[in-house]
Amino acid sequence: MTAWLSRLPGGTSSLACGAHPPLSEEAAQALAASGHPPTAIHNNCSGKHAGFLTVVAHLGLKVDGYLDPGHPLHADHVTPAIERTCGVDLADGRPVSTAAESRCGR
Question: Which of 15, 18, 50, 76 is the most exposed place for a label (fewest CB within 10 A)?
Fold first, then answer.
């Protein structure tokens, strides 16, 4: 995850997900034994966030606010993809994307 994020603008500091210990008991124990605190990289949603940041970088979009429903990532890409794939119209005021509703620590 660190290597992936190091190739993106802002690196690990761009992750908008919160920090929590790894969900794997073994990984959580290893992290605790290392004396290092959990970071956003340990968040179970960090891979999804890294994917979002990769698309943001690829499209040349601003990183700030990448989880906001009105951000071009969601408004122009995520929401239309969900609508096409699921055959639904999300223009009725429901959350623009599942990412905006995941409550993954932000």
Answer: 76
Do the beta carbons of residue 44 and residue 19 sit within 8 Å?
A: no
Q: Are 12 and 39 in contact (CB under 8 A)?
A: yes
pTM, two decimals, is 0.79
Work out how many domains the chain is built from and give that number: 2
Does one domain contain both 93 and 52? no
At 23, the amino acid letter reads L
Quote the longest CA-to-CA distance of the chain: 49
Angstrom CA distances, 75 to 40, 44, 68, 70, 83, stand at 25, 24, 9, 5, 11
